[in-house]
Specification:
Order of helices and strands: EEEEEEEEEEEEEEE
Number of domains: 1
Structural class: mainly beta
Protein name: DUF3108 domain-containing protein
Mean pLDDT: 87
Low-confidence stretches: 1-18, 87-94
Radius of gyration: 17 Å
Distance between the termini: 30 Å
Strand content: over 45%
Shape: globular
Organism: Meiothermus granaticius NBRC 107808
Domain DUF3108: 136-200
CATH topology: YmcC-like fold
Largest sheet: 15 strands, antiparallel
Pfam family, one: DUF3108_like
Keywords: Signal
């Protein structure tokens, strides 16, 4: 689920960022294309922005089996995703199409720097055979320091962000509600000024920046 995050989503000013959405560690530039490679799978994915305006933008991730688009809003406190990136979840026997019914917080604050702490959460609901599922995900983040990171795209001085995501699910079948086992996932991301995310490690999967086309 989080891997679909993750992450984590204006023709008139192609190649330029809007001041309302611009951040040092997360440049919102229409026309730029970020290419990442994951390990151990070895799969490649690209990320770009579309429809950039002072109010928000669309974050587009192109995967090998299709694309994921999420709408973001440029708020006073930072950049906020309006929906969770991955909406198709399920076990071996069925898949559940979730929709975002609630959100709080920003994905990245405007005051991002060493020592910054923030949180965001999403509440999702989906229909399944005979009932409904509710999923609440809350992520706590802390920028712990600056590190020199080397990835295929080069060597960067990057801000290290440690995150803890807690997922709590509930099931309602036949009018009876029960809680499902919760799950906690640790992740670490590195952001370079003027570049964006250069590396992330989540649930044993490493994502590294291969190239940035401007």
């Amino acid at each position: 689920m989080l891997k679909g995050l993750a992450a984590v989503l204006g023709v008139a000013l192609l190649g330029m960022g809007w001041a309302g959405c611009e951040q040092a560690y997360f440049p919102v530039k229409e026309g730029w294309v970020w290419t990442y490679k994951s390990s151990p799978e070895g799969k490649t994915q690209t990320m770009r922005f579309s429809g950039v305006s002072p109010a928000g933008f669309t974050y587009v991730t192109q995967l090998s089996n299709g694309s994921v688009e999420t709408r973001w809003k440029c708020e006073a406190g930072g950049l906020a995703a309006l929906e969770f990136a991955s909406s198709n979840l399920g076990g071996q026997n069925q898949s559940v199409n979730f929709k975002t019914v609630g959100r709080k917080g920003v994905m990245l604050p405007n005051t991002l720097g060493v020592g910054s702490q923030w949180s965001y959460s999403f509440t999702l609901e989906g229909a399944m055979s005979g009932g409904t599922l509710t999923d609440h995900m809350e992520t706590l983040n802390k920028a712990v320091g600056l590190e020199t990171i080397t990835v295929p795209a080069g060597t960067f001085k990057a801000l290290k962000v440690e995150s803890t995501s807690t997922l709590k699910m509930g099931m309602n079948v036949g009018g009876k509600t029960r809680d499902l086992p919760s799950n906690t996932i640790q992740s670490t991301s590195w952001y370079a000024k003027g570049v964006g995310m250069v590396k992330s490690v989540t649930a044993g999967v490493t994502l590294e920046l291969v190239s940035l086309k401007k």
